[in-house]
Amino acid sequence: MSNLFSGLNKLLAFGVLLLSSLTAAAAPAPRIVSLNGTISEIICDLGRQGQIVGVDVTSTYPAALEKLPKVGHNRNISAEGVLAQNPTLVVGTTESLKPEVAAQLKSAGVRVELFKQAYSVDGTKQLIKEVAAAFGATAEVPALLKKLDAQLTQVRKPAKSPKVLFIYARGTGTMMVAGQGTQVEKIIQLAGGQNAATGFTEFKPLTAEALVAANPDVLLLFDSGLQSLGGKAGLLQVPGIAQTNAGRTGRVVEMDGQLLTGFGPRLGLAASELSKKLQ
Question: Average pLDDT over the chain, rounded to whole?
Fold first, then answer.
């Protein structure tokens, strides 16, 4: 009799295991809307790119993401635009989604995962680990971190740290400079430069007086921002630029915005590229 019960128990256990396996296999893949370019990039590096059905405008890498529906930019994103993509999961950073919009998405039955992003090497590694854990993809983490570390070793800082001024531009009507504590300052420092803008945090409007006072050795812009000014020639016509060291020497550096400030898996590549341009 004991052998009979033992056999029945084994059969029952096998049935439960088989049922759970079939259930897991039948579970549909999530429909993801990503509201942050860095999070999008990490998801793709984890092999989940095919599950993304919508992105914000900062999600530009890899290039295939450009073909997906756009749901808005940063904190201007609305619940309606996101829900139009029929997502089951919305991801982003704690800075990329207003609390009231997150509440609307949750009330519609959508799972929302927001991650805290710190702009440093350690912060980037932690973000990769947390996103991977949320997707059950921790096995991919060691390879991503190894690649990041390898790219960081390629950073060759200039012998003399140049003063770099980052200008955010959307035409001459919108020009801002990055102050202390910004992610732009962090990447400048990681590449071996120093922020020419001091005495304030976040961003503030660019003025000719502030330009002359900062007297940067290098001007740094997003490639899209420089284009909006008419290229290097247009930038050099901005009042105050000609009176700076950068203006006199023509030292202007442009980089892809998401690469430069994303602090994602390509952080080492961004710092390496910027360090070369600062030489």
Answer: 91
- Quick check: 165 and 196 in contact, CB under 8 A? yes
pLDDT band at 96 (very low <50, low <70, confident <90, very high): confident
Domains of the chain: 32-152 (3.40.50.1980), 163-278 (3.40.50.1980)
Q: Which amino acid is it at 182?
A: T
User: 18-22, 47-51, 127-131: which range is least confident on average?
Assistant: 18-22
- pTM higher than 0.85, yes or no? yes
pLDDT of residue 118: 96
What are the DSSP calls for the chain, one per residue?
-HHHHHHHHHHHHHHHHHHHHHHHHHSPPP-EEE--HHHHHHHHHTT-GGGEEEE-TT--SSGGGGGSPB--SGGG--HHHHHTT--SEEEEETTSS-HHHHHHHHHTT-EEEEE---SSHHHHHHHHHHHHHHTT-GGGHHHHHHHHHHHHTT----SS--EEEEEEESSTT-EEEE-BTSHHHHHHHHTT-EES--S-BSEEE--HHHHHHH--SEEEEEHHHHHHTTHHHHHTTSTTGGGSHHHHHT-EEEE-HHHHH--STTHHHHHHHHHHHH-
Tell whether the model's pLDDT for residue 37 goes beyond 50. Answer: yes
